[in-house]
Amino acid sequence: MAKSRQQSTRSRAARRAASPSLDLDKSVTSLPRAESPAAQRPSVLTDRRNSGIQKKNKNDKKLSRAQRLRQQKGMDRAEAVLDQMEIKKAKSLARGKTVNTRRADWEDTNRSATAFTALQQQENDDEDEAEEGDEAMAEDTAPPAKAVASTNVFQMTGEASAPVTDDFDEIT
Length: 172
What we know:
With about 170 residues, the protein is mostly helical. The protein has a domain at about 65-135. The protein has helices at about 10-20, 25-30, 45-50, 65-140. It starts with 11 loop residues before the first helix and ends in a 31-residue tail after the last helix.
């Protein structure tokens, strides 16, 4: 007969034996449910802001002179980059302002142009009304004009004609 080995804690059989059975005793089901903890979680936004990879601070050990100079040089470079970015942002905002002022100038120009065209249109309408009155008076006194028939040499008739063939066109 084979030796019986002790059952491993990570084996499938051990896990199955450790799982709770479906036959729970009724005292557990009659107990009230556990309430949520009184202390609420901090804001989700702070969790998101603080999540991510962060380097550990090594404040317990004193830096060597070379390390301190290297770190200072890196900080100076970072400040220079930030200054450059601030300058770029300021220039960009200035360009945006000039574009907006130009746009406003063009809008004023267009508004004045539309007002000018509206005034011209009104003047033209007034002149047309005056001319219509003159033409109406002239029509009463003028002899009737002769109707001119339009003759178009290239005008095609509505009928489609068959192509003309001669007896001499055939090759024998």
